[in-house]
Amino acid sequence: MALKMVKGSIDRMFDKNLQDLVRGIRNHKEDEAKYISQCIDEIKQELKQDNIAVKANAVCKLTYLQMLGYDISWAAFNIIEVMSASKFTFKRIGYLAASQCFHEGTDVIMLTTNQIRKDLSSPSQYDTGVALTGLSCFVTPDLARDLANDIMTLMSHTKPYIRKKAVLIMYKVFLKYPESLRPAFPRLKEKLEDPDPGVQSAAVNVICELARRNPKNYLSLAPLFFKLMTSSTNNWVLIKIIKLFGALTPLEPRLGKKLIEPLTNLIHSTSAMSLLYECVNTVIAVLISLSSGMPNHSASIQLCVQKLRILIEDSDQNLKYLGLLAMSKILRTHPKSVQAHKDLVLQCLDDKDESIRLRALDLLYGMVSKKNLMEIVKKLMTHVDKAEGTTYRDELLTKIIDICSQSNYQHITNFEWYISILVELTRLEGTRHGHLIAAQMLDVAIRVKAIRRFAVAQMSALLDSAHLVASSPQRSGICEVLYAAAWICGEFSEHLQEPQQTLEAMLRPKVTTLPGHIQAVYVQNVVKLYAAILQQKEQAADVSAAQEVTQLLVERLPQFVQSADLEVQERASCILQLVKHVQKLQAKDVPVAEEVSALFAGELNPVAPKAQKKVPVPEGLDLDAWINEPLSDSESEDEKPKAMFQDEEQRHTKPRAPEADEQELARRREARRQEQANNPFYIKSSPSPQKRYQDAPGVEHIPVVQIDLSVPLKVPGMPLSDQYVKLEEERRHRQRLEKDKRKKKKRERERRGTRRHSSLHTESDEDIAPAQRVDIVTEEMPENALPSDEDDKDPNDPYRALDIDLDKPLADSEKLPVQKHRNAETSKSPEKEDVPLVEKKSKKPKKKEKKHKEKEREKKKKVEKGEDLDFWLSTTPPAATPAPEELEVNTTVTVLKAGQEEPRGEEQDADEDREQDLEKKPSKHKKKKHKKDKEERPKDKRKSKKKVPPTDEEAAEPVENGTLDEEPLPPMSSYTLLAENSYIKMTYDVQGSLQKDSQVTVSVVLENQSDSFLKSMELNVLDSLNARLARPEGSSVHDGVPVPFQLPPGISNEAQFVFTIQSIVMAQKLKGTLSFIAKNDEGSTHEKLDFKLHFTCTSYLVTTPCYSDAFAKLLESGDLNMSSIKVDGISMSFHNLLAKICFHHRFSVVERVDSCASMYSRSIQGHHVCLLVKKGEKSVSVDGKCSDPTLLSNLLEEMKETLATC
After folding, report:
1. Stronger pLDDT, 1101 or 821, i.e. the higher one
2. pTM for the whole thing?
3. Longest dimension (CA), the chain
């Protein structure tokens, strides 16, 4: 045996490890595939050995090859063998390989269930951790179902490392096995208050991801998340919570009123750009949900826009992009706030980064109004000429059209200007969006009747210069506009000034070089023009002119008959025969104009895009029924189907033409070449730069010139859009003067009435009247059209199954399956296992008690979803229920002790544990309370009768860990005024951190109140023996700290300064100076502002959550000194009182019972501060305990000042 082990060790010395494999692949670049195939053969031999180390090495190499793209699914069983190794290093290799190559279709994945369960229950946290990490990559519905209970048990593991991983993997389990969400959610919710910040962050991430898709099910968690948001210092957790509130606010608008204050505080105070961006996004969502319910929301919007302007002005391209993105969200609901920053957005169009230019274009789309449309489009047109690259130019063109056509052309006041813009866009080279311009030309001409005469004149000129539009292969996309021009001139030919000239332009030989679909429109509209000219000539009794027009068509139409496009051929052939027939009738002097015009009588209206979809299904029509009965299975498959039409057999019996031989094919080829050579309209394979279209009749007036395509083409006779801009400005000025005159007359009439405050008139969009009254034709819809049908949700969406009501009581059938050993006794009486040993004596009362508990629990859960949230969100405080103070104190103490003595079962189901714990707590509570009542009876019998009966749980149950779910917090701000003058206003807040011992951060918000530009700002503070300002390296004690920004007029920003404190037991004040340069049109001046920075003892405290059992141990330790205060004349409710103490003095509520609450906080130097706050009718007493008596007395004095204002 020893020899065998030695031999195995020697063999392993010569095996290739991962480094050898990588080195070998690099050395065999020429024959890499061959070398890897040799390595795979060696690996297969290694996997056949019994030594687990050799197998692990082979699997490690396979993992690398899998990353190179090689399939290793054939080694799935060997990977499971390595996963089951007892050594952690081998096990880790197996799980890594499984996480890379296992998926739901892997056959052997079902064999991993027991192995993973074994690793999850391993005493080694690293075995458990690697199992959880690997399982998250290849979890299947079966694995999720079988292992959900094991993972849920690990959420209560003693190690935070395991709890965090277990919480995170539960998200994957929920997606694969949605039935596990309801039983696991209570425990997941508990992790939101886990003492470890990593576990808490993981729970926030999981719940926020679940709530992102189905937010309505998580609305009841709003108070808990609000508490986390106001107490957490982790930016990533805050970002997740703020995103969640953004999804919850539309469902509960009252929530927005509570969020607006803390969110604006965060926007003011945070220096993290990611958090600032999410706060702005959520404020936007809040204000959308509030709509008119929030009267002062304009200040919040202005704050958001100012912060976003700072982002956009930043040199970092990423911040600039995010600023533009958030600005576009504000634009949807508050366009006027964003329109003030139009100059900044237009500057972004000159940015080097194309993505920023495109985002600025999206912003311009929403910033347009009747007032500024022409100005914005004019600037965009200049950018079109300067644009580099066809992609950006095409995007500009699309955006110009979108801006003008949005909301049924509501911003356009002069359609002649818009037509001229479209015609100017036809000069673009290399664009692919000619069809967009054509569609707009058609849409405007059809829907705006008043513009048709002008549009027809422009389109006629465009057809006259069609040789310029379609002269270059680079301009092949823009020739689509000729499609629209031809259609408009044909359909509205009655508006043409010279229809015959337009007809000749449409029949030029050059037209045959256009794409087939454009030629087809030309041919069709030639007939419309012909009909209009015929009618005009016959009314004027000019027979010879009518015959000349007919002769022109007979001569020119054959060129279209020979077109390669079938559509053009068919239309031209039909029309040619029609014209020849008309020519015969004209020879007999028969009037034909009326008959030809009747072909195109009536007006075409636009049809709505979804008209076909909205056609109602006629009665009696079943679209799912078979038209022909399907063949039965009994009929033979070989049987020929019967002919559906009579002539089918004849068609099949037609003889096929014999195939031509080589000589016949050569002869046909030669004949085709001769025909092409003699055909003047055929385009030769070597086209010359100048065509001979000038020899064709009717086009002698068109000069033949060499076109320099580097110069933008200008179509002669076209009005420039700039002329319309000037005309529009003059027209609006005249309208304004007329309106002012009317207002003056009206004021003169109303002079006898009360005086009104005269305000400066700003022209709104409604004041601007259009240049001409237009009749916009709406799209036609079918009769009895069905309403718009919503898009069906994706049936494969995994989040659909997670849309579960989490507040409904958990049924027995919904409990997670638990794997247990088979036992005959257990199967007969499963209830015996669940009964605790202490409570075996009384069985009948237990059943009654269980029923009572279930009813109470159901009531409680219903209240939690509705009433508790309503209490938390309501603006009116609930009616207070008076209770004796002695009862409150006793209840608090007993509950703390009961929490310490709570037993836990080891072999029970997780959910059963939870239920029993819930049942045990009230029973112990009752027993202890009953004992205390007995002790107090001889002292005061009357009082004991008036007390709440012990069976009532709701009255005696305390509120733990700061869940003040009664009424909304009053609006409060932690920032206080530091100093102020005519130039600048300074507000500050002091925050400590438990991670940085003896350090506090002072956040100073600087607001420019003047018209000057403030720069070179520097803050200096005189250090004391106890407090010192942290300065840059190399600075002396007398040097100031530069402020890292400048302040334009009306802008505010925040700077943070760090101070090191020696002793925190006393409050102190430091003198300081802010120096700066104020620059305006007159020049620059040096200014300074003196201030006194006040460090209170409260500013050294950090809000720290504390559990009731830890709080009780702290009080019993005997290491704390005691002091107390009492304040009379208190009228504020107890809930708001606690909220004020928590906010201003940085305490957290440990436990509350009626009008008594225990509170906890911790200093930056580790001092524990415990309070017991009791409220009487008009007074409040505060008993405090702290490890430092001086600190405690100073804190209580500061608290006394705060309570005196209540």
Report:
1. 1101
2. 0.49
3. 134
